[in-house]
Design brief:
289 residues, mainly alpha, FAD/NAD(P)-binding domain, two-stranded antiparallel sheet, two-stranded parallel ribbon, GMC_OxRdtase, GMC_OxRtase_C
Length: 289
């Protein structure tokens, strides 16, 4: 992430600096809700993290009613939009080589990124496991209702408590001894469900990835707003939506890359054409004992 990111997040020059209404389920707190006040919208304020999400995110979109938006259908548009620094060229099955968006790998010089010894490899495995275990909770921690954006339901509070306890368990493992300090928050004295719930209500915040409020879907879906074949709003003439709000469900990562893909694909939809599907193998992690 660029060091100057916080200048945009902390300034009203390029940021609308919204806040939510007081949230009943967070003890009346209002949550900071930055939105781009500049050409390019919130994509101009993003942290420059290019994360496509998982291929299954887009297969799920199609299952949820967004016909034509499976991974094999959207991969060509991810590739079209980017020039990836490590692309193998026109025949690269996954990455683009001549698109307008320059994408490169992030730095990996931290000891946790260097599997140069058995100990470091063990750390990497533990860290990978922890990220996979917590992935399911990213999109469930904030549930939208008609009168409250942040509404941790009982099951979600349980999941967040589990995430805290799992994080403690992981970072208490021996491979992290040389990196671990004292727990700063919620603090080692916070152990009971009640104590953790109090911390969650005090500390939970947005990751600044609002989406899915105008989801693509079938005309028979009462929650669908946008026709996935035209990007038009059901029941309204000459109104189209092309942004993160049309996602049927949130992608498992930052929203900038999928939003650019949506724009590329929508552009072709408006032109009455579509790139051919691509079906390279999807990597899956090996079974763990």
């Amino acid at each position: 992430m660029p060091a100057a990111l916080m200048y945009n997040l902390g300034s009203t020059r390029y940021n609308w600096f919204y806040k939510t209404t007081p949230q009943e389920n967070l003890d009346g707190r209002s949550i900071y809700w930055p939105r781009g006040r500049v050409w390019g919208g919130s994509s101009s304020l993003n942290a420059m993290c290019y994360v496509r999400g998982h291929p299954y995110d887009y297969d799920l979109w199609e299952k949820e009613g967004a016909e034509g938006w499976s991974y094999s259908s959207v991969l060509p548009y991810f590739k079209k939009a980017e020039t990836y620094s490590h692309s193998t060229g026109p025949n690269d099955p996954y990455r683009g080589h001549n698109g307008p968006l320059a994408v490169t790998r992030g730095s990996a010089d931290h000891p946790l990124h260097q599997p140069g010894s058995t100990t470091r490899l063990e750390k990497a495995r533990v860290l990978t496991w922890s990220l996979e275990a917590l992935l399911d909770h990213q999109t469930q921690s904030l549930i939208q209702t008609y009168n409250s954006i942040f509404c941790p339901l009982q099951c979600t509070m349980m999941e967040l408590r589990t995430a805290i306890r799992l994080s403690r368990e992981i970072f208490a493992l021996k491979p992290f001894d040389e990196f671990r300090g004292e727990e700063l928050a919620p603090g080692k004295d916070a152990q009971s469900d009640k104590q953790l719930d109090q911390f969650i209500k005090k500390a939970v915040a947005s990751a600044y990835h609002p989406s899915c409020s105008c989801k693509m879907g079938s005309e028979n879906d009462p929650m669908a707003v946008v026709n996935p074949k035209t990007m038009g709003v059901y029941g309204v003439e000459n109104l189209k939506v092309v942004d993160a709000s049309v996602m049927p469900s949130i992608a498992s990562g930052n929203l900038n890359a999928p939003t650019i893909m949506i724009a590329e694909k929508a552009s072709d939809i408006f032109k009455g054409k579509s790139l051919p599907k691509e079906t390279p193998p999807i990597w899956t992690p090996p079974n763990r004992t």
